[in-house]
Amino acid sequence: MYDRPENGATSGATDRTGASHDRPAPMTEQVGIDGPRERSRRPIIAILMTVIAVAAYVAGTRLWNYLASYESTDDAQIQGYIDPVSARINGTVIRVAVDDNQRVKAGELLVLLDPRDYQVAVEQARANLAQAEAQVNVARQNYVAAQAQLREAEASDVRAQHDEQRYRALIDEHVASQAQYDQYVSAARVSAATVAAERAAIGAAERTIESREADVLAARAVLDQALLNLGYTQIRAPARGIVGKRTVQLGQRVEPGEQLMALTQIDRFWVIANFKETQLARMRAGQPVTIYVDAYNRRFKGHVESMPGASGAMYSLLPPENATGNYVKIVQRLPVRIRFDDGQPGIELLRPGMSVEPTVWLR
Question: What is the pTM of this model?
């Protein structure tokens, strides 16, 4: 027989082998689907989701404001003045004082041409000037002599006119003969003509002086040009910079306008940034710029110096002509000029042609 469990418990049963199996007790605290613990978690989750949403909105707003506060491009490079150094006269090179990548100061000798031909031209111009000045002195002396002759002729004319008037009175009184009177009348007319001739000679002497003085000015101009040509035999640096692209050689015969080398000025640099036209809506001159230089992994400060007048395509050799019917709308790029702020350390290391990434801060 089987033993009945004590106190009427039904929590377990005994099989034939005597082993007992416990049955799970009924869940007396479960009410519906959710219990009290699940209900207590709901407000916490809702608050946490709200905080996350607010934080995401604030972070997104700040990120949007930050992204909208600047415009940048990687289509930019440093620009500078690269001056071509050329000859102004023809001549033979007798000395080349510099080489590529050499630093020079303003006025430093770069190339020397043979000056002997131009020294001879200077001496000849000086001789011509001295001769012209001597001719001026001769003309002035002739003018002084003409004035003296005029005064002498005027004195003789006064006496001749008085004699003519006196003999006219005598002839009226029948004291002098007609022949004598005719003689004095003729002398008076000759004297008057002499005075007129001397006055004309003075005018001619004055014009001669003016002509000789003009010759002096012309001779002085020739001398000045000869001195300039002599100075041009010394080709000097137009500014402080670095020599590059040297092509001149010792003994070379150069012609006027022939480029001998290039000089890169190192006193001033700027950036040409080719921004898209859609990036220029809020860009203005004077806005601050951060310029990242790839070569040195450094950032420099600058500002927008000027806005472009046309797109880069319009400045090209063959600008696009959209009136032909082949127009394709393409976002154009416009060159914005950005200037480096002065006094920054390391700015002397910059060189034209270096790639940069400018960031223009719009607000």
Answer: 0.67
